[in-house]
Automatic annotation (TrEMBL):
<feature type="region of interest" description="Disordered">
    <location>
        <begin position="1"/>
        <end position="26"/>
    </location>
</feature>
<feature type="compositionally biased region" description="Pro residues">
    <location>
        <begin position="1"/>
        <end position="14"/>
    </location>
</feature>
<feature type="compositionally biased region" description="Low complexity">
    <location>
        <begin position="182"/>
        <end position="196"/>
    </location>
</feature>
<feature type="region of interest" description="Disordered">
    <location>
        <begin position="182"/>
        <end position="229"/>
    </location>
</feature>
<feature type="compositionally biased region" description="Gly residues">
    <location>
        <begin position="197"/>
        <end position="221"/>
    </location>
</feature>
<protein>
    <submittedName>
        <fullName>Uncharacterized protein</fullName>
    </submittedName>
</protein>
């Protein structure tokens, strides 16, 4: 693992800043502050699984080899703060789980078909739509993906990338370094709050962030398009964290987190399913040797 994740400037928001609103209405344009998200089993928590509130939920685990699973439900946990009408002090928090995406795994999609095997499909009108990651190029000692809109066939559920559409996000990864999520050209400049972002990039110090995270993560995105990094992944032992470093619209945050889960699931299927098959074959081989 490379250097420790960069510090926040300012520190991560509190529970009330991240998870609770004071109104029953939903606003997809609401700006959410930078935060740290932790994937723990089937829940995504703020800051730590032991004390942070649950912000998103999955109906199945994605961090184990799940080749047999074709769909995972992704839901947002909404909390409404109830205040005393006399004193104005908070008295209760009402929780509601809202199903917003399905993370799909199309086993029939392969190299011969123009479409993704893994994608997120919206089940709510309050999202940015259906998206998938498409490898766009191979960098020196690394790779790059684009989060692009997809069209999903209503009859068969097959996904295909929409033509001439700009990326909502870009994902960059170099060997031995962290996955970085960068604002894409298709974000229309409105996916995050410029005034609320953390120094235009990770850690706020754009002169030193590249050394900390293994890439160009400040106010530049490598091509001079002015797009900065909005999140960086951090993986420990049996733990996945997404360090969101820019203030994002709620619907953009939802798409970012859902695609993050989609990427983790795809990685687990592609890299760990083979290990399971090898393990089963090893058991069969030992049984054959024992019977001989």
């Amino acid at each position: 693992m490379s250097a420790d994740p960069p510090p926040y400037v300012p520190p991560p928001p509190s529970y009330s800043d991240v998870a609770t609103t004071s109104t029953e209405s939903y606003d997809g344009n609401e700006i959410l502050s930078p935060t740290i998200l932790v994937l723990y089993k089937q829940s995504i928590h703020a800051e730590s699984p032991s004390s942070g509130p649950v912000l998103y939920q999955l109906n199945r685990g994605i961090t184990g080899p799940t080749h047999a699973t074709s769909e995972v439900e992704f839901s947002r946990v909404e909390r409404t703060l109830k205040a005393d009408t006399g004193t104005g002090e908070p008295v209760a928090i009402k929780s509601r789980v809202r199903h917003i995406y399905n993370i799909k795994y199309d086993k029939d999609a392969g190299p011969g078909r123009f479409g993704p095997q893994f994608f997120i499909r919206s089940v709510s009108r309050r999202t940015v739509g259906d998206l998938a990651l498409r490898r766009s190029s191979r960098l020196f000692r690394g790779e790059k993906w684009k989060a692009l809109p997809v069209h999903v066939d209503g009859t068969y559920g097959l996904a295909s990338f929409q033509r001439d559409r700009e990326a909502i996000f870009e994902v960059r990864h170099r060997k031995g370094q962290r996955y970085q999520w960068v604002e894409g050209a298709g974000s229309e400049g409105g996916s995050r709050s410029r005034s609320g972002s953390v120094g235009g990039g990770i850690g706020g110090d754009t002169g030193n962030t590249g050394a900390n995270t293994g890439g160009n993560t400040g106010g530049k995105s490598g091509k001079g398009d002015g797009k900065g990094a909005i999140a960086v992944e951090d993986e420990g032992e049996d733990q996945h964290r997404l360090i969101v470093t820019a203030s994002l619209k709620r619907e953009t945050m939802d798409a970012l987190v859902a695609l993050w889960c989609c990427r983790i699931w795809e990685y687990e299927v592609r890299h760990n399913t083979e290990k399971i098959h090898e393990g089963m074959e090893g058991v069969r081989r030992k049984l054959r040797l024992a019977n001989e």
